[in-house]
């Protein structure tokens, strides 16, 4: 298995060719078309400012099935008090910006670079990416 380098051509290697940690490819653009092709194939971008776009497809992937979600008793109590209001797509740009700049203990920086923020905002404008807000 070797890391693949992407150029302008719109393609991805087979996810079976990913390195043991899931890294599959580097490079290419974050165009709407490339991101959609990636997600359709179980691939996602994740990289830092200093890196080219890195494309990942770890096995196994984490998948959350809402019907199988177990909500703790204490969380059910919080939800019952209606302390939170849940909305969808009311302020996508603020959500992605807040995620980008949120301070996280033990972490430096974020994977939400200028390029990622722009790409996902374009996906939102196209009706593809959505924000969930609480």
Radius of gyration: 17 Å
Strand content: 5-15%
Low-pLDDT ranges: none
Largest sheet properties: 4 strands, mixed
Separation, N- and C-terminal Cα atoms: 42 Å
Spatial strand arrangement across the major sheet: 1-2-4-3
The count of strands amounts to: 6
Q: How much helicity do the residues have?
A: 25-40%
- What's the number of helices? 4
Give the helices and strands as they follow along the chain. Answer: EEHEEHEHHE
Structural class: alpha+beta
Mean pLDDT: 93
Silhouette:
globular
Structure report:
The protein has four helices and six strands. It is of the alpha+beta class. The chain has a four-stranded mixed beta sheet, with helices on one face. A two-stranded antiparallel sheet has the order 5-6. A hairpin with an 8-residue loop joins strand 3 (44-45) and strand 4. The longest helix is centred in the last third of the chain and has 12 residues, at 114-125. The termini are far apart.
């Amino acid at each position: 298995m070797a890391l693949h380098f992407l150029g302008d051509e719109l393609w991805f290697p087979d996810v079976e060719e990913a390195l043991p940690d899931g890294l599959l490819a580097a490079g290419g653009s974050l165009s709407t078309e490339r991101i959609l092709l990636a997600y359709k194939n179980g691939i996602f971008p994740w990289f830092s400012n200093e890196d080219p776009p890195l494309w990942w497809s770890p096995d196994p992937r984490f998948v959350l099935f809402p019907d199988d979600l177990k909500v703790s008793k204490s969380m059910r109590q919080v939800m019952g008090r209606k302390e939170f209001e849940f909305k969808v797509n009311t302020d996508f740009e603020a959500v992605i910006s807040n995620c980008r700049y949120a301070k996280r203990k033990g972490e430096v920086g974020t994977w939400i670079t200028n390029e990622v923020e722009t790409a996902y905002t374009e996906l939102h404008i196209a009706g593809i990416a959505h924000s969930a807000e609480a």
